[in-house]
Structures are given as C-alpha cells and as structure tokens.
Amino acid sequence: MEPIVHTVWEPVTGTWQYIVSDPSTKQTAMIDTVLDYDKDAGLISTASADKLLDIVEDNGYIVTYILESHAHADHLSASRYLQRVLSQRQNERQPLVCIGEQINQVQATLGQIYDIPESELHDAFDYTFSDGETFRLGNIEAQVLHLPGHTPDHVGYIIGSNTFTGDSIFNPDLGSARSAGKLLSLPGHYRLYTGHDYPPKERRGENSEPSGAIPYTTVDRQSKENKHVKLGTQEDEFVKMRNERDSTLSEPKLLRQSMHVNLRGGRLPARSTEGFKIEHIPAGVIRAG
C-alpha cells in the first residue's frame, strides 16, 4: 500500500516539508517541519507550520509522528508547536517527535559549543530510532534508514516506495550527496524526496511550483544523473570533491539559532542567548525548561 504524500516547500530556507498519510486509516506523519524566523527582526512566526495544519484539517488526518531527518542547521523545527496544537485538536492524542538515536552524539558535541544546559538536552525527543527499525502509519509499515555523513544522527524514512532522504542527497543537478550508497541501492522506481531544493535559474518554472523546486526524483534518475554520486563514481574521487567543496562553504545563516532549538527537540531556549534575538513568541511555541 502506498501513502498519500503532500509536499510543501518553504522558500526562505529552501526546505521541503512533507505530510505522509495512510489513505485507509488517515494516520499521518509530518517530516522536517519549519518554524519561521526573521533573524534581523528577531521575530518567530508559525505561518509555514500553520499551512501544514490546514492540510491536516482539510483531509481529516490523525498525526501520530512528527519526524526529523536530523538536527537541522539551517532552519528551526516547528515540531513542538505542531505537537501542542495537534494534541489539542486530536483530543490529547499527542504525536511523537522523533529522530535518529545518534542525536545524543550531536547533542554532546554541539551542546557544549553553544552552551546549552544538559538538563535541556536530556530526553529532548519523545523517541529515537535505531537503524532498520520499523514503525507503522496505520496499515503501512515504515522503516528507518541510518544515513550518517551529513550529520551522525541523520536518518531517512522509507514509507511505501518513497524515501524521505533529508539532506543526504539533493536533486541530480545539485548533487551534494552524502551516504548515497544506501539510497542508490534501493529499487530503481523508488522516489527519493529531498530535504531541500535550491532551484537554479534554468529550472525555475519547470513544474507546478512557482520556484521550479522539485521534491523528488527516482533512484534510477539519481543513479544516472546526480552530478556528484551517480553510478560509477569512485569513493576516493567523491571524498576529494567533497573535501574541496566543503572547504569553500560558509556556515548556514541560521546555524546558531537552529542548533539552540533543534538540539532541544524543537523548543526555544528557556532564556535569551547570545546571537539569538527573539522579540516575539507566538502562542503555542514552547520554550525549554
């Protein structure tokens, strides 16, 4: 059985957000959600998350999981805001906020760098998945695929013939893949839904998205066309390319703010922190502590 997949692009950070639902039971997962943040003004908004809530309400979905592919460094997670609102709407049937079990390693390393109290990292997520673990969306079995490389905690989610890859691979014309071996070994017709898209000029307007952003391609297409890791690419060649390319990249614009929220499992810091300006917190957005 195949799920219904809703794709929602957030253009400011280029993030693809997903709603995945079992059509027979309406049990649903949200994947890699975005809490809007204006760094200069210090304003937090739930506009992107509210679009997801509208889709859920319009379709009568019951959200049981809010899934993170990893601790994002380029956007704030809306997981706890969504959890609070959905719990109220679903008569206290609270969805679980989940991530890969190696998040502990990321929290231990980056928690020290960003001076996050250990008490705000402990049990920050409702559940952490191990590699190969399965769970159910109604009548559909989903599987967790550990995809370290981008981050140690990175996982993908296989639901039907769809794999939600996070940042482990991008669309073929962008490449930027890590941990691609596991993904390219999946059946050729499987769809690989990416965590981001930054469409180049020649692709804008190519499809129904005004930006030209594309949520997925197939394993077959990635294997033939991905400019960094198509079939035949040698490991030493890829490692050399990645090291050279990574050395030229600047850090994500929202790195500090994203880490403060996402390492806390989607909660804002309990107090103001250096470099994280917050002038307004909308109702329903949760602080740690």
From TrEMBL:
Question: Matching SUPFAM superfamilies, A to Z?
Answer: Metallo-hydrolase/oxidoreductase (SSF56281)
Q: Where is the composition biased (Basic and acidic residues)?
A: 198-207
Q: Which Gene3D superfamilies match?
A: Ribonuclease Z/Hydroxyacylglutathione hydrolase-like
Q: Which residues form the Metallo-beta-lactamase domain?
A: 14-196
In terms of SMART domains, this protein maps to: Lactamase_B
Q: Where is this region: Disordered?
A: 196-216
| Pfam families (alphabetical) | Lactamase_B
Residue intervals passing through the bilayer: none
Superkingdom of origin: Eukaryota
The UniProt entry's GO biological process terms, in alphabetical order, are: glutathione metabolic process; hydrogen sulfide metabolic process
Q: Which UniProt keywords apply?
A: Metal-binding
Q: Which GO terms describe its molecular function?
A: metal ion binding; sulfur dioxygenase activity
Q: What is this protein called?
A: Metallo-beta-lactamase domain-containing protein
